[in-house]
Amino acid sequence: VNRSQNWSLPDLPDKGTSAVPAVLSPQQQMMKSITQGLFFAILAAIAALAIASPEVKVVVYKGPKKCSNKGKNDEKPTRVEPNYSVAFHFTVTVDESSVGSRESIGRKIESSHDLGIAPSFPVGQGKVISGLDQGLIGLCKGASAYIIIPPHLAYGRTGMPQQGVGSDATLRYDIEVLDIQAPLPNDFVNIDANKDWKISRSEAQRYFEEEGKVIDLDALWDAEDKNSDGYISWEEFTGPKGSEEPPKKQRQEKKKKQEPQKQQAQQQQHKQTVGSLFQSMDTDQDGKISKAELARMFEAVGQKMTLEFWAESDPDGDGYITFEEFVGSNEGSASDEL
């Protein structure tokens, strides 16, 4: 191998000279390919860093910046810590540093002021987007702050189009911390080793042995196991059990809240279905169904329309079925005969 080989790329021709393509040696061709590949890889890395800043930025612009929970035990906390519940007002917009469409910059996505209620939840438990979970920790009660959240800690590449959040959007939360509550004691979660939301005798025995406590399990079960199924459920447990309810109960509450919306959606779907059926029968599209059109529909399903059915479907006897009449007949005898 010739170690004095020149591995640099050929110089570009000077102005005024003919640009005759240089003949590259195999080594030079390989080096050129590697150099170009590295160049584009570096560009891609820089672009990725520009899109996804690794950190959440927090700027306290009003209120206390320093606080501590190392006071007396009976004092209310003044600093947000993991698992502490925080109540706060917020307004979230698309930040000016966002790389998406410039038209979305500054767009308001959501505000608790519009809702008329300040949300409250335990911090650091995944109840909200990761960036907000991180940004709230360390803030003081009474503080107002901007929390700037990069895309990968917000809604990422997919965004949230239904709320006006585009792909790779950087979010800006303007928040005011109203109240902070320390986590409630939760003996239940410590005893429930397999996290099935019920305590078995073996789990209770293991827990109290590790705590160095002697307890009468029979007496405990007589007092706590209300339905005598051999387990102490979260509902039955009378000791400290925090504020988080079992997922099943959460789902039931969510289902209860969603029921009116579900009924409304079903009614809307039913209306659309009836409307589509009416239009399919109204072959001449004059907004009403004639006797001949209805008869053809019956023939299409292998049945014969009776005069009694027609009389019931056309109560005003004008020879046509309007949509209002159709809806009435569709709810009753029409569905029975079909």
Structure description:
With 338 residues, the chain is an alpha+beta fold. The chain starts with 25 loop residues before the first helix and ends with a helix. The model is unreliable at 1-22, 30-53 and 330-338 (pLDDT under 50). The relative contact order is 0.08. The radius of gyration is 35 Å and the shape is flat. Strands 1, 2, 3, 4, 5 and 6 form a 6-stranded antiparallel beta sheet that branches. The protein has helices spanning 26-51, 112-115, 130-136, 187-191, 201-210, 217-224, 247-281, 291-300, 307-313, 323-331, 333-337, and strands spanning 57-62, 85-94, 108-111, 120-122, 144-149, 171-181, 198-199, 232-233, 289-290, 320-321.
Low-pLDDT segments: 1-22, 30-53, 330-338
What's the mean pLDDT score?
78
Structural class designation = alpha+beta
The biggest beta sheet reads: 6 strands, antiparallel
| Distance between the first and last residues' Cα | 91 Å
Helix coverage percent? 25-40%
| Residues in β-strands, percent | 5-15%
